Amino acid sequence: MDDRLLQPGREDGNLPGVDTLQTAQGLCWRAVKEFEAGRYEAAAELLHQALRLRPRLQDAHFLLGACYQRLGRLEEAAREAELELAAHPDHALALGLLGEVHFSLGRMDQARAALERAGQLDPNDLRARFHLTQGAEISVPTTPPARWPSISVCMIVRNEEKTLERCLRALGDLATQIVVVDTGSTDRTVEIARSLGAEVHYFQWIDDFAAARNESLRHARGEWIFWLDADDELSPTAVAQLKNAAASRLADAYTCHVVSRLPSGVEDAVPHTRLVRNGLGVRFRGRIHESLHQDLEERGLKVLDTDIVIVHTGYASDPAALRRKHERNLAYLQQELAEHPDNPALLCYAGMAKIGLGDREGGEADLRRMLEIPPADVRFNCFRFWAWAALAHLRIDRGEDGPAREALNRGLGEFPGHPYLLALKAEIAIRAGEFTEALALLRAAYERQKTLTWGYRPDRKILALQVAAGYALLGNEVEERAWFAQAGEVGLREADGYLRWVDLLGPRGRIEEALRVLAAAERQWPHHPRIGKGYALTYHKAGKGAEAWRAWQRALADGLPYEEAAPHLALLAQEGYGAEGEADRAQTLWIAGMQAMQSGRWPEAMSHFADLVELQPGDGRPYRYLAVVLQKMGRTQEAEAIWRLGQQAAALERA
To answer: Which has the minimum average pLDDT: 64-78, 456-470, 633-647?
Structure first.
């Protein structure tokens, strides 16, 4: 809570009664303590008591609004901020609060006006400056100094032959020394490292990432240390910025934006302290998700955030690899939690790993427990952001839009105007038929995503297309064309963003609206298979089986894979739709195979998929389904052999 609040003896100047004033101020002081402890309901109740005694007590409405903001009661938070400003028009903190809440409600013009006024009243208001400029990082120059300091690049590796060469070549002239600590590679990792000038040292793996990282630091001889992973990538701009950061001597350490492309398609930007002055004795901590942050903080060293971007590719793995990573990480996290049961970061990571492994109940429990712990500082807390986003997703998946909206409002209370939370909240509004609100939220998300943002970041091009689709639904062709143009060059992949409205509307039975968006999409992408699929699913939801069957045929003609359409065609066939001879033999086999699988008729399914393999020997998909069926029948060795043949066929098809 801001230390400018509630200075002793402040009068509201309107009501007599020293006793009631002192009592009300005492209640406010207690409310501040409750707020700082994360007990926002208790703080709000104390403030209500204070306001009953002194309705115009300065700061009280602002404090109550701050409580409501953290509780996700955003409209009430805005009202309290306005009540504070009605009594005290130059209350800069109330203006800042009002601006944050307006951002979270998608009211961009009102937000900017409030924050600009707050900045005028208090030029040192960092919160207003942050929201108006979307960042508090220093921008590192790229002009050369008189002398470059030496930098040791430190890495730990194991079986990284696929990514290591690209990573090391991207370093350019950054490193005067490259330290690679190998923890047990059995591939060409060591050979590649040495061929590119790295010193290779060996460290026996002891289930402790921090220990391995600290071993790499032990060999660093440069004036500065920069650490990275083999699946990190640096741009030439980032290399120049890192060199200049070290040369500037503005701080003892610098954080970077580590940006990961997640399997869901969004990016995740996380602050990592990657560049640190050597010789300070700084060490990594944490058996898993190791970090320098705690050691730097305890030593009182100066750390500056920068706008340097490091691209991390480690999450762009296949589902099986991601599952293995979750299993490994969870085992380490549980060991750490046994020693530090109330560590918020560990609870968050454990919760996310459990969700990734399918234990949604256990993951949700860990995340809720973590959110009960008040944040330690006012910096962007990635763990709390991830937790609110994950809770919202879990509730959406359960069909609980009300509780999901509540989680998003709580998240927006802590992370005002965050574009990912705004976009997710817009999806709930679309399903509820609140199209005007959804458009306001999507437009706000688009604007807030202009620059680097911590946490999950939706694709700005996709956001523009979603706004265009919303205007198409409302019949506003002028705005639809304008926002389509705003998206820039778009291809077939981006159509999924436009058609997201159909995915949200169709299952809720909003047939007319879904068809309207599909018709607009058809004008832009006339032969996109997703459009035929969208029509098919929408018609089927509306009970129009014949139209759905024809739409599936259109989607297949436009290139939709058989395996994607087959389960739906099988269901329609069971309902009596689709005339004999309307599909070719391959399609008939797909439908029959899927029907047999759905009914557990494994020998029959095996026969159909074996026929498909014979009919389409270069297509890897029938092999995979045949392997699954053989596995279900207990014929494991045959299943493994067929699966390998399918992988070979898929590789040849890609080539």
So the answer is: 633-647
Q: Which residues contact 214 (CB under 8 A, 6 or more apart)?
A: 283, 284
Burial (CB count <10 Å: 0-12, 13-18, 19+), residue 195: exposed
Distances (CA, A) of 46 to 3, 19, 31: 19, 17, 6
Read off the pLDDT of residues 416-429 as tens digits, 9 standing for 90 and up: 999 999 999 999 99
* CATH code at 151-312: 3.90.550.10
Encoding tokens for residue 336? 């750490």
The owner of tokens 């703080």 is 43
pLDDT tens by residue, 16-30: 555 788 898 999 999
Average pLDDT, the chain: 88
**pLDDT confidence bin for 451, thresholds 50/70/90:** low
The DSSP string of 291-339 is BSHHHHHHTT--EEEEEEEEEE-TT---HHHHHHHHHHHHHHHHHHHHH
Where are the CATH 1.25.40.10 domain residues in the chain?
Answer: 18-133
pTM of the model: 0.82
**Distance (Å, whole) CA 278 – CA 149:** 11
Top pLDDT among 302 and 123 is at: 302
Q: Which CATH number fits domain 18-133: 3.20.20.10, 1.25.40.10, 3.10.20.880, 3.40.50.720?
A: 1.25.40.10
Q: Where in the chain are all domains bearing CATH 3.90.550.10? A: 151-312
